[in-house]
């Protein structure tokens, strides 16, 4: 009969260690699963560039694109330059070849001409001149035929009566045309002011031979004038019995007080303008409009002349170079109207 075996203490301790190890492995497996689940469900953070970074990125891309475009254009330009140089060299070579052939042909012709007698040389020269003339005639005929195929543009010519100018006598309205603006000149007031200035300085001229004065402003202009004194010579006194001195107006000029005077042409031609009001005081057919025209207003002058002709007025033009002032003198010429 077998004997009963007592349990070993070491077997019991081994079983406890295995249980503990199994529990730890289970706990680790659970932790791994929890971490994996959290990592799966965790939100993904994307790195979005800010406005400055986006602008810098765009600028960088634009610079790269511009550099590539510039590089491509440089290469294309270099290729074109090489092609032009090659064409130039080919043309120069062709020109040199033709020059040599021409010189050789002329030398051969001259050599053959020298082999001829005097009569034959004269006949040869006539034939050569005839050939040159025929070639020139053919060239002219080709140019004439080409010109005949071209359709000339229609040109409208405006014609006005009284093409011959005549000296102005009677009523006269003076205008300044400058920068496309029409300024009515107070001509009658200017003449009256000159008369008054002359009378007020007549005593001064007894001791002075020349005097320059100013007056105004008159209608937007200041008046600058010069008076001179001329003594009667002894010979004139002996011949006529008249002595003394003669005081006269040498010249006068109008100095504008502003660069923006008058009215634009469109405004001046409209009803109620200053120009229309001044024009209404002069009768059509008996009055002349004299325009002092600067180079920048020739087109305005032509348009104004057309309008005045339709209203029955004649017009005189006095062109002035830029920088010259409107003025006059007793020895000056009168306006010529058309």
Description of the molecule:
This protein is α+β, with helices and mostly antiparallel strands. 52% of the residues lie in helices and 20% in strands. The protein is built from 8 helices and 11 strands. The chain has a 5-stranded mixed sheet. It has a 4-stranded antiparallel sheet with strand order 4-5-6-10. Helix 8 (298-311) links the parallel strand 8 and strand 9. Mean pLDDT is 76; it is low at 161-166.
**Strand-residue proportion:** 15-25%
Summed up, the helix count is: 8
Determine the mean pLDDT. 76
Which class of secondary structure composition applies to the elements?
Answer: alpha+beta
Strand order of the largest sheet: 7-3-2-8-9
Q: Low-confidence parts lasting 5 or more residues at pLDDT below 50?
A: 161-166
Order of helices and strands: HHHEEEHEEHEEHHEHEEE
Alpha carbon gap, first and last residue: 167 Å
Rg over alpha carbons: 53 Å
What sort of overall outline do the alpha carbons produce when their principal axes are compared? flat
Q: Describe the biggest sheet?
A: 5 strands, mixed
Helix-residue proportion = 40-55%
Number of strands: 11
């Amino acid at each position: 009969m077998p004997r009963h075996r007592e349990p070993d203490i070491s077997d019991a301790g081994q079983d406890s260690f295995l249980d503990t190890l199994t529990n730890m492995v289970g706990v680790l497996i659970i932790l791994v699963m929890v971490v994996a689940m959290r990592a799966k469900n965790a939100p993904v953070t994307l790195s979005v560039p800010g406005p400055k970074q986006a602008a810098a990125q765009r600028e960088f891309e634009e610079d790269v694109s511009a550099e590539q475009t510039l590089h491509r254009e440089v290469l294309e330009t270099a290729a074109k330059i090489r092609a032009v140089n090659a064409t130039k060299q080919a043309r120069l070579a062709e020109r040199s070849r033709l020059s040599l052939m021409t010189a050789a042909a002329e030398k051969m012709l001259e050599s053959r001409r020298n082999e001829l007698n005097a009569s034959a040389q004269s006949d040869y020269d006539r034939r050569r001149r005839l050939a040159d003339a025929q070639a020139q005639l053919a060239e002219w005929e080709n140019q004439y035929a080409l010109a005949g195929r071209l359709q000339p543009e229609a040109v409208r010519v405006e014609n006005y009566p009284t093409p011959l100018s005549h000296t102005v006598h009677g009523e006269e309205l003076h205008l300044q045309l400058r920068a496309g603006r029409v300024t009515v000149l107070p001509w009658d007031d200017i003449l009256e002011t000159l008369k008054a200035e002359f009378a007020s300085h007549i005593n001064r001229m007894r001791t002075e031979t020349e005097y320059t004065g100013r007056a105004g402003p008159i209608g937007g202009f200041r008046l600058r004038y010069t008076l001179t004194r001329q003594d009667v010579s002894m010979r004139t006194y002996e011949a006529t019995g008249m002595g003394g001195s003669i005081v006269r107006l040498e010249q006068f000029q109008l100095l504008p007080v502003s660069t923006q005077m008058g009215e634009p042409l469109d405004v001046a031609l409209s009803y109620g303008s200053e120009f229309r009001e001044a024009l209404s005081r002069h009768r059509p057919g008996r009055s002349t409009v004299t325009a002092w025209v600067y180079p920048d207003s020739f087109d305005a002058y032509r348009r104004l002349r057309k309008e005045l002709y339709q209203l029955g007025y004649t017009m005189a033009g006095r062109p002035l170079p830029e920088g010259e002032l409107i003025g006059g003198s007793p020895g000056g010429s009168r306006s010529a109207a058309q």
